[in-house]
């Protein structure tokens, strides 16, 4: 390859790398998946924060972050909701995990919004972190009742999630396997966001759905953020 062609190749590679770097820089500048404290702090910096709950209308009606509006890419009259937002100000989006909120965040950026933030862990992180939220029903289980179950049983496996959470649904058959194998030796407690939001808030330990906690003699043996190999972890813990 002669020097002229070699220089052309070098210049092409440099241009590609520069284009990629600028793209990453722009995305980093405009959209962040923020952890709870950073997300909350940025909201508090705004006089009238633009908060979007990207879940379904049914989920939103049960609980949501105070001051949020509810829509996502599948919402009827989606364009109308977007037109009511100020593109020059930050937008804060959340869902259960990051799928629906992530899709919406990327779409808003494509349409000229200057700053978009997605909450890592979604509504689970917000409520689990003890932040203020709206809910329309009283928890079926109180913190005192929860603590009594933990105290009264030698081994307690707690499953915390939401009926709208896809990953949470994968936990259920694993719980049935554990229930069948260990019987009364393991007390299984299932807590969902829709029926027990205050327990999730009071525990102040949930960062994502599902969250699994195994207690033995009132002490936490392990806590899992996400499903992972739950059956194996329970077997190992109980073997010791």
Q: How would you sum up this structure, described in words?
A:
There is one protein chain. The chain has helices at residues 3-30, 36-44, 57-62, 78-83, 99-110, 122-128, 143-152, 166-169, 171-182, 197-203, 230-239, and strands spanning 31-34, 50-53, 63-65, 69-70, 91-94, 116-119, 133-135, 155-161, 187-192, 211-216, 219-225. The strands form three sheets. A five-stranded parallel sheet has the order 1-6-5-2-4. The protein has a four-stranded mixed sheet with strand order 9-8-10-11, sandwiched between helices. Strands 3-7 form a two-stranded antiparallel sheet. It folds into two domains: 3-135, Oxidized Rhodanese, domain 1 (3-Layer(aba) Sandwich); 143-239, Glutaredoxin, CATH 3.40.30.10. Mean pLDDT is 88; it is low at 13-29. The chain has 240 residues and is of the alpha/beta class. Helix content is 46%, strand content 21%.
Question: What keywords describe this structure?
Answer:
alpha/beta; Oxidized Rhodanese, domain 1; Glutaredoxin; five-stranded parallel beta sheet; four-stranded mixed beta sheet; 11 strands
Quick recap of the structure?
The chain is α/β, with parallel strands linked by helices and 240 residues long. It has eleven helices and eleven strands.
